[in-house]
Specification:
The chain is an alpha+beta fold. It has one domain. Helix content is 18%, strand content 31%. The chain is built from 3 helices and 6 strands, in the order αβαβαββββ. Strands 1, 2, 3, 4, 5 and 6 form a 6-stranded mixed sheet that branches. It is globular. InterPro entries: Dev_and_cell_death_domain (IPR013989), NRP-like (IPR044832). It comes from Sesamum angustifolium. This is B2 protein. Residues 14-99 form the DCD domain.
């Protein structure tokens, strides 16, 4: 098992089974309201491996709770919504709410 979140790299030929984004109490409400999840720039390569339909999870490290299942609505990308969060360089993916 390869931990892509720790390495920051997703091999181009690797198919992901799901992806966990991280938030805290300060960012969780914005993540859910915008249906947009973000990570620091060092995760750029692994976020680019996200494809529409991929299961997504949101881990709140303040409360130690895992939320989901969400579904990726788009390919992973950079700066999808320039008004999201204060760090404009965050890598993001748009997700849809659980069914």
């Amino acid at each position: 098992v390869q931990d892509l979140a720790c390495s920051g790299d997703a091999p181009m030929n690797e198919v992901l089974g799901g992806y966990i984004f991280v938030c805290n109490n300060d960012t969780m409400q914005e993540d859910l309201k915008r249906q947009l999840f973000g990570l620091p720039p060092r995760y750029r390569d692994s976020v680019r491996a996200i494809t529409p339909g991929l299961p997504l999870f949101l881990y709140n490290y303040t409360t130690h709770q895992l939320h989901g299942i969400f579904e990726a609505a788009t390919f992973g990308g950079t700066n999808i919504d320039p008004t999201a969060w204060e760090d404009k360089s965050a890598k993001v993916n748009r997700g849809s709410l659980p069914r």
